Amino acid sequence: MLNPWLELDGVAERVVAWSELTGLDLLRLGTTAEADEIKDTAVTQPLVVALSLIAADELRSRVTIPADTPVAGHSVGELAAAAVAGALTFDDAVALAAVRGREMSAACALEPTGMSAVLGGDEEAVLNYLDLLGLDPANRNAAGQIVAAGRLPALAQLAEEPPPAARVRPLSVAGAFHTRFMAPAQDALGKHAEKVTAADAAQPLLSNADGAVVSDSAEILRRLVAQVTSPVRWDSCLAALADRGVTATVEFPPAGTLSGLVRRELKGVKTVALKTPADLDKVADLLGSDA
Which part of the chain is the Malonyl-CoA:ACP transacylase (MAT) domain (predicted)? Predict the structure, then answer.
């Protein structure tokens, strides 16, 4: 995950500093750790945010990003987005991700829960059916793609008796993220967030809650904390990008999934998925072609 980025000047030192800040050996976890260890959400979340910020910093050292460029992040990626938008320091974003991941992992251990993707079907019918089963629509990623979350028996029933014209695919996750089951994690993150001094966003920051642009520092922090138990409305973020007339998107690492959603939902919009430093030149080419 981190290996190709460690070749850049100053990155290894920054990762070591973040390791001390979070109490996690991010350098080892991002290079030589086994896959099962990295899958632990307590590890995944700070690693993802750290990697995204490393790429964002390097990108800004190479190209000029217009001040009105909107920024959005999916789930824990919203912490990285807030930092890119200037609302959080990079250190605070990584520290918040570590607390978030640790506390969400702990919340998952309190009761067996999970998540399943519901693909296709009528949106209203799917949402009504989930409500009937006592499941929450934790992620609404795009048209025809809703992630259900909740107790395992209800998810099993969903898989056995899916909504009309829909398919159900169980997800390999530790628990029901972005639902009421994460309330203890939200409380813990909120207490940590009280120690953080945020700034008003310098770039348009699209909120996971509804796709709205949020600039006020206090409101940004409030939404970042509330997001732990609230649905991710990535469909609303995509709609907001369409409304703003975006012609291209850049996805920070680990990249690929969100770029795929953009290509599917925003026809004609160019995408660059930054997987390694070698992809950074593609952004310069992209900006040049859109000039």
Answer: 2-291
